[in-house]
Structures are given as C-alpha cells and as structure tokens.
Amino acid sequence: MTASPLQRLTAILREARAVPVLHEEAVPPSCIYDPLYRAMVISLTMRLCGKSSEGGQSLAEAKLKLFQFAAVHPELVPSVRKWASAHAGGAKPSLEGWARFPRGYAADTVHERVLTYLVATGECRRLGSNLVVRTDGKGLLISLANDAEANDRFTVEREALRELSELKITLKMLGA
C-alpha cells in the first residue's frame, strides 16, 4: 500500500526529530489564498490542459479559470464533469444550473490577481482571449511545473487537471 502524503510528511518529521507545535489561537490562512500556490496551479493547468502554440502553451482564460478552480477544489471535478456532459452538443446552460455551480467560482479574485502579476512580470502573456505561458525553459511557471512533476508533488491537483483536460468544454458553454 502506498503511503499517503500525510504519512510521508509524518515520516519526514520523525526522521528529522521535528516536534510539531499547534497554536490553536492562530489558525493559518488557507493555502488557496497563497499567490505562489495559485501560480503553481496555473502552471500545472497550462501544462496539462493547454495546447502547444507559437512561443508557449496556450489556453483560453475562461477555461483556465474553471480548470484551476476545480483543481484547487478537486471534490468539484465530478460536478464539472456532469455539468459539461449536460451541456454538450451546444445546449445552453440553464439559469437554475448556475445556482448549483460552485459558489466560490464567480467570486474567486485571487486567480485574476495572480494572472495580472504573472503577465506584468513576463511569465505569461495575453493573446486575444487566451493566456500563453512561455515554454523556453526559463521562468517561474516552468520551474514550478517541472518541480511538481519531478518530485511527485501536487498529485491531487494534477490528477484533477488530467480528468478536466479530457472534458469537452467550449467557450460558448462558459459564456466567453
């Protein structure tokens, strides 16, 4: 049986003779709001779901937002799959269906802010409605994705993205 990430972390801490300390009065913020974590998820989304284009990996921003949101909340992947199959073939999403869509999706501003920063630093660029991430072997996003894959990190997010990459989701379905 394969050890879970928590079991592996426990073993590493034991080996280092580290003693965890819990400060109940100070609950740490969720990693969902951490810009570096979100940059990691964006890098993996572009690598696993993007298409090769001139100068990098390209993906429509509307798809990127949905895919990265579901990767951060992998329990939503079955719902996204169900939603995609219900609207395949050009059927318009119903207003009632929107109420069942993940609540945080529309209000997720961390994603946009991280993208704005990544564009400003040259890590990626906008090309029409697409985002293009450079694949020249340089830059933060490339190194984050390489590190995650080489060290088998962010396995839950990567598996969610692999599932999402197989779905047929059009820009029309996303209202873009």
Walk me through the topology.
Blueprint (H helix, E strand, L loop, with lengths): L4 H11 L19 H15 L1 E3 L2 E5 H12 L4 H10 L8 H5 L3 H5 L2 H11 L3 E4 L2 E4 L6 H11 L4 H11 L11
What does this structure look like?
This protein has 176 residues and is of the alpha+beta class. It has one domain. Helix content is 52%, strand content 9%. The chain is built from nine helices and four strands. It has a four-stranded antiparallel beta sheet. β3 and β4 form a beta hairpin. α2 packs across α3 (61-72) and α2 (35-49) crosses α8 (140-150). The longest helix is centred in the first third of the chain and has 15 residues, at 35-49. The model has no long low-confidence stretch (mean pLDDT 83).
Low-confidence spans: pLDDT under 50, at least 5 residues? Answer: none
* Largest sheet: number of strands, sense, barrel closure: 4 strands, antiparallel
Give the SSE string: HHEEHHHHHEEHH
Mean pLDDT: 83
Oligomer state of the chains in this structure: single chain
Shape category: globular
